DNA sequence: GATCGCCGAGAGAGCGCTCTCTCGTGTTGG
DNA sequence: CCAACACGAGAGAGCGCTCTCTCGGCGATC
């Protein structure tokens, strides 16, 4: 490696430079770089050597300008507007291990495809406007949108741009965009079936925020499953998908229904809080109260007792989102095909 | 909004179009869009109306091509090479809540600056090469590198590109790049001081992987602090910064030193595992064994008992990295100025 | 009243690349 | 042996934008 190669201040190497050192035209170098088949092997070799010698790297901006592609997509997290006071710096979504799994699953497909991922946060009108204009600027070829609140206008606005996009989870209102999600109702049913098969009859649930479609469906699935077992009483408390929220909601639920012998908690993180509350209330687990979580996060196995939980294949779902999106980028006219994954029950000690 | 505006298939609006509808030249539109001062207010108004009417959004690729800037940076996570078998799809880094806090802190500074963040994972030669060539392509203006392993060649390679970059944490080998980190030794000292002031004398530590500089320094700080208190025996066990690893290492440590009355665990996640092991071994916490963690993650407060821990201001540190990077992008010739933050002790129930 | 200077706007040259079109060469068939 | 053809390579026209340079018009100066 020459000193030249180390100095980026020097004029960057262009196609022209490579062409000159290889003794061919710009067009030929372009063909070689882009793997066109119609190049004489001898010339190809010469060009490759010239590329090597000059340290040439294509300029993405110039390429995008003519191809109208950027080979990158946006991962957009749309959160509820921050409250004016005391909110953490930036949304809590990023610290949720669930989100990390989504990122991992996406990258697993995007990286081999040579597609980069831009991470964006939308949490108010300004950032929403910025994001939409960013999209229209053609800065990314498509979008994966993580939007959890039913009232979020972003899925609709995104659909209206007509640009390729995929949603993480079914939107509250029907929108002409493909989505990927787990069968929430089936998951809740599995949890209830497990609790019932363990002989539990006084079963409650800690539900997620009822302005989130996913949380709504888990609650509805819970109720339907209980009804299917002939149980009409379905006590529940709402929490915010955090550990602390789960603990607090469990306290409320327990004070109103001290005789509970089973709980379906709509996320593992909340289940951690629920277990804590139950233990502190003197319940033995699972003898007195059996608990089933949702997600099968890494923490589930580390709970005390280890958490029986409904597994959703987050990484595979994320990978599928990436594939769906790349497909739509390639053929935008195809019909928006969604995918619903089946959850499975992971049996551990808590139920 | 007209039907036209909704149809992206239609030829996108360019500067030329705006210029025509406003009855001015391209140059003037460009001046208005970029806020140049030397524009007649009347014309400016006309242009703004034309921009509004046409729905014009500047093309980033074209702009980058001439300005040589992209207004985006890369957040690069460099992990140890994956093992060939049984490794999870993509590195575990993303599911670590610590990482989420870093992302949040970065975005907090980048968003107001209008700078986008591209998330990249480097975990083998191929992806490293891809990343470096991505950089040289000028696809991003700078890099924030999260690299934790001492043997990682990436910090050096990154420095050699001469492009703006900031490191999360001090690199093992000195490299001409600014870094941001917490004073690891001081943190370990705070933990030990706390344990000693609680009357503990038989103190061990669960250290992080000793191929990570941060983990090394915490261990060294631990030893130095014990020595300062006249304690020469410093038992320790190494773990991998995971919950399960922390639990396992604690088992080992405890079997060799059953009389331990205090433990400094080099991360909260590992501390969760340590608490579990200690409880299962019949120790009362904190009466029999006091425990101090490191990080002050969200989970620390949710532990049973709540974890006394060394807080590092992750979000502020990340924000500082972003500021440092933006500064270097603006003035690359400035000297690479690093920052070391002071940790604080958060007192809870475990020690 | 002529000259100078200044300010604001337009003209136009690229930025580095892709891609179509054209042309020259080698190959095949009649 | 020549026409028809295939194929590989070069020429050149942009992609949409910024920015320098130039120029017209105006007020100030002598």
Automatic annotation (TrEMBL), chains A, B:
<keyword id="KW-0238">DNA-binding</keyword>
<dbReference type="InterPro" id="IPR000843">
    <property type="entry name" value="HTH_LacI"/>
</dbReference>
<keyword id="KW-0805">Transcription regulation</keyword>
<keyword id="KW-0804">Transcription</keyword>
<dbReference type="GO" id="GO:0003677">
    <property type="term" value="F:DNA binding"/>
</dbReference>
<dbReference type="Pfam" id="PF13377">
    <property type="entry name" value="Peripla_BP_3"/>
</dbReference>
<dbReference type="InterPro" id="IPR028082">
    <property type="entry name" value="Peripla_BP_I"/>
</dbReference>
<dbReference type="InterPro" id="IPR046335">
    <property type="entry name" value="LacI/GalR-like_sensor"/>
</dbReference>
<dbReference type="Pfam" id="PF00356">
    <property type="entry name" value="LacI"/>
</dbReference>
<dbReference type="InterPro" id="IPR010982">
    <property type="entry name" value="Lambda_DNA-bd_dom_sf"/>
</dbReference>
<feature type="domain" description="HTH lacI-type">
    <location>
        <begin position="13"/>
        <end position="67"/>
    </location>
</feature>
<protein>
    <submittedName>
        <fullName>LacI family DNA-binding transcriptional regulator</fullName>
    </submittedName>
</protein>
């Amino acid at each position: 490696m020459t000193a030249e190669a180390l100095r980026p201040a020097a004029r960057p190497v262009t196609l022209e430079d490579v062409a000159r050192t290889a003794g061919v035209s710009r067009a030929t170098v372009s063909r070689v770089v882009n793997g066109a088949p119609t190049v004489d092997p001898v010339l190809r070799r010469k060009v490759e050597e010239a590329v090597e010698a000059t340290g040439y790297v294509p300029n993405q901006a110039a390429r995008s300008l003519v191809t109208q592609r950027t080979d990158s997509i946006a991962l957009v997290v749309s959160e509820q507007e921050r409250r004016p006071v005391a909110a953490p710096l930036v949304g809590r979504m990023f610290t949720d291990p669930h989100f990390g799994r989504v990122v991992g699953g996406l990258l697993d497909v995007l990286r081999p495809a040579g597609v980069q991922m831009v991470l964006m946060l939308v949490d108010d009108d300004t950032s929403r406007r910025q994001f939409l204009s960013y999209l229209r600027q053609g800065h990314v070829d498509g979008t994966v949108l993580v939007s959890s609140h039913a009232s979020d206008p972003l899925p609709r606005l995104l659909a209206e741009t007509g640009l390729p996009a995929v949603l993480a989870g079914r939107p509250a209102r029907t929108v002409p965009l493909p989505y990927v999600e787990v069968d929430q109702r089936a998951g809740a049913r599995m949890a209830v079936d497990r609790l019932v098969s363990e002989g539990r009859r006084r079963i409650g649930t800690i539900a997620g925020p009822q302005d989130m479609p996913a949380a709504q469906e888990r609650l509805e699935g819970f109720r339907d499953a209980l009804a299917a077992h002939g149980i009409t009483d379905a006590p529940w408390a709402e929490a915010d998908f955090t550990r602390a929220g789960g603990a607090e909601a469990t306290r409320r639920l327990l004070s109103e229904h001290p005789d509970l012998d089973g709980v379906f908690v709509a996320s593992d993180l909340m289940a951690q809080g629920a277990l804590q509350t139950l233990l502190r209330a003197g319940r033995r687990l699972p003898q007195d109260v059996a608990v089933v979580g949702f997600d099968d996060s890494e923490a589930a196995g580390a709970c005390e007792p280890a958490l029986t939980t409904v597994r959703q294949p987050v990484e595979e779902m994320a990978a599928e989102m990436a594939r769906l999106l790349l497909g739509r980028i390639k053929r935008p006219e195809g019909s928006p095909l969604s995918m619903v994954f089946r959850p499975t029950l992971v049996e551990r000690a808590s139920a």
